[in-house]
Amino acid sequence: MSSDTQHFSTEAGGTPTAPGRYVDVSAISRAEFVPGLQFQPVLGERTMVNFVSFDEHTEAPRHVHEEEQIVIVLEGEFEFDLDGDVRTMRQGDVAVVPPWVPHGARTHATRCREIDVFNPPRKTLLDHARAQLGDAGSGKGGGES
Q1: Structural domain count of the chain
Q2: Low-confidence residues of the chain, pLDDT below 50?
Q3: pTM check: above 0.90
C-alpha cells in the first residue's frame, strides 16, 4: 500500500502535456442518438467522461464497443444488462464493462443520471466532444472554461 506522501507527491516525474481546465457540464450541448437519452461528453487527452441522462421509459440498446467503460450512477435508477446479468443500479452503484462485452440499459418509470468513463475515448462521441473544445476557444460557451 502506498503512503500518503507517495500518493500526494509534489515531485514531478515528467512534463505536463497540456494545461488543466475546468468544465461547466451544464453548458455542454447534448447529443441524443435515441429519444430520451442525452450525452454530454468531456474529453481528456486519453480518457472521456460522458454525463448521461435517461428520461423515463428510455432504452440504450444492447451493444458492444472496443473502449473499456465504467458506469457510475449519480441519481435515479436504471436496469443494466451486463452480458446477460441484468440488475437494477441505483445511486452509487458501479459497473465495469471491458472491451467488446455486450451491455445495455433501460429506465422504467424513473429517470437516471449517470457517468460513463471511457478509455480510450468513445469513438462515436469524439466529434461531439471535440466540438465542445472548439466552442471554448471561440468564446461560444461550449462548456470548457
Answers
A1: 1
A2: 137-142
A3: no
